[in-house]
C-alpha cells in the first residue's frame, strides 16, 4: 500500500478535486516550491517524521522543506530543537486553514513555484512519500 493516502470522500467534496487545497482567494500564502510539514509534540507520528527530516529533505530537493509547529508549547519547542531555524516556518493563518482540511496530524503540503498547493499528504511523511508528492506536483505542472 502506498504511503500517500487518498483523501476522505467528505474532504474531496469540500476541495472539489483530489490533491486540491483551499481556493487561492481563501488560502493564506504558502512558501513557493516548498514542502510544509505541520507538526506538534503531542503527535507521535510527527516525532517519527522529524527523525526522518534529512531523508525528507534529500527526497524533496531542490524543493525546500519547512516545518510549521501548530502550537507554541515548550514541548513543541523542544521537538524543534534539532530543526535548523531556517527550516521553521510559522504562520497561524496557514495552520488554521490547512488543519481544518487535514483534521489530524501529521499533515504536509507541497507547493509549486507560485506557492499553490500541488500535493497533500495526510499521514507521516518519509522519503518515499516525499518522492510521490514530487511526482504528483510534476504531473500537475505538465
TrEMBL record:
Write the signal peptide boundaries. Answer: 1-20
Task: Indicate whether Isomerase appears among the record's keywords.
Answer: yes
SUPFAM superfamilies named among the record's database cross-references: Thioredoxin-like
Q: Does the keyword Isomerase apply?
A: yes
Superkingdom of origin organism: Bacteria
The alphabetical list of record keywords is: Isomerase, Signal
Q: Check the record and name the InterPro entries matching this protein.
A: Thioredoxin-like_sf
Molecular function (GO) terms listed?
Answer: isomerase activity
Q: What is this protein called?
A: Thiol-disulfide isomerase or thioredoxin
The organism named in the record is Sphingomonas guangdongensis
